Amino acid sequence: MGKTVGLSKKQIEIITAMATKTAAEEYNKMQQGQKKKDHNWRLRNIKLLLKNYRNLKLYCDEIEKDLHILEPFLELIGGRALDIKGLTETEVKTEAMMKFVDAVLYTYEKSCNEGTEEDRRRIRIVKDMYLKPQKNTVELISEKYNIDRSYVYKEVNKACETLGVLMFGMDGIEDIFKR
């Protein structure tokens, strides 16, 4: 057997301090990476909601029509009338989500209308691009507002940043300050 060499108390303290510092740095890097992923996930979801807004609203409108058509028949056969909305979880969740989205969009629009001319133009761009029943192309919007196509996308991105704050609260605010 060979001779065993022990570490001094000072050496153990130095190694422990270095290991702790390295572990803390790695943990912070991992946290920053996760926050960036969360930010990207939130922005992606907001953009998906905007892109699919018309279809989701149509879907909710159809649900309402279907429920109103079914209600008299259920009353005739002795069924419960207004608790039909519980037919499927997906329909209820979609309708609740769209009510939330509409409330957020209302708040955002109100905020923009009380802001600068740039803010007011930004909400009009978002509405023209995603919210109005008539679909518009980026080319039409850029011509309408006399701005470059790339600026239309920049305005949409700025709107999504603010919508992220309104939809996700403090997590959305942290996204803005962490970048």
Describe this structure in words.
With 179 residues, the chain is mainly α. The model has no long low-confidence stretch (mean pLDDT 80). It is built from 7 helices and no strands. It is elongated.
Mean pLDDT across every amino acid position: 80
Please identify the structural class as seen in this structure: mainly alpha
Largest pleated sheet: none
Question: How many H/I helices?
Answer: 7
- Secondary-structure element string: HHHHHHH
How large, in whole angstroms, is the Cα Rg? 26 Å
Overall form: elongated
Low-confidence stretches: none
Helix content: over 70%
Strand fraction band? under 5%
Features:
single chain, mainly alpha, 179 residues, 0% strand, 80% helix
Give the SSE layout.
Blueprint: H1 9-51, H2 53-76, H3 89-113, H4 117-131, H5 138-144, H6 149-168, H7 170-178
